[in-house]
Amino acid sequence: MYPIHEIFESLQGEGRHTGRPCLFIRFAGCNLACPWCDTDHSPRLRLSANDLLARVEASGAKSVILTGGEPLLLPLLPLVLGLRERGVWVAIETNATIEPEPDLREALSYIATSPKLGAPIALTRADEVRLVVADGVDAAWCEAVRARLPATDYYLSPCDDGTRLRVHEAITLLGRLNAADPTPPWRLSLQTHKLADIP
Length: 199
Ligand code: SF4
What we know:
This protein is α/β, with parallel strands linked by helices. The chain has a single domain, classed as Aldolase class I (TIM Barrel, Alpha-Beta Barrel). Helices cover 26% and strands 25% of the residues. The chain contains six helices and nine strands. Strand 8, helix 5 and strand 9 form a beta-alpha-beta unit. Bound molecules: iron/sulfur cluster. Residues 30, 32-34, 37, 39, 41, 68-70, 95, 116 line the site of iron/sulfur cluster.
C-alpha cells in the first residue's frame, strides 16, 4: 500500500511540460525538510498499485506525474509498469537524493528533479533539472549541479516562500550562468499553476 496525500487533475505548471494536462499522484513523506517547502505531503489515504491503476483508468488520463514528498522512497515499479502497459506517459518529480533501480528508470517516461542545496545528489541523470532560487543558491552551486547531473534541460525556479517571489534574483543568476555560453543552457521556469490559480 502506498501512503498518498492527494490525487488530482491539473496542468503541469513548471519546466518543459508546462501546460500539459496530467493526473498528479502526490505521495506522502519526504526525506528532506526544506525550510521554504510549501508542499503538504502528509498521509491521507493508503492505496495499492491496483487501486491507483483503477483510478487512473477511470480518469482517462494519458499522462501521470508521480510527485511528493519524495516518491522514490516508495517501491514504484509495479505501479509504473502497470501504467506503461496501459499506454500512460509517466513522469516523476524527485529531489535527486535517490537513484531509481534500473528497471524503474527504464520504465519511467520522464524524470524531473529539483536537487536541494546541502542535500546529497544520488541521481545519475535526468530529463530536466529545476533548481529553486532560494537563500544560498549561487552560480557556483548551479554549475556544480549541472556538472554532477547530466540532463537535457536546466531551469531556475524562483522560490516562493509565501512572502515574496524571487523572480529578479533568478533572472540575475540566469544572466550570470548563461553569460559565457553561446547556447545558453539555463532557462527560467515559473510556477504557472500558481499564477493561474489552479492546483
Ligand atoms: S524535497 Fe520537496 S517535498 Fe521534500 S521538503 Fe524539500 S521542497 Fe518539500
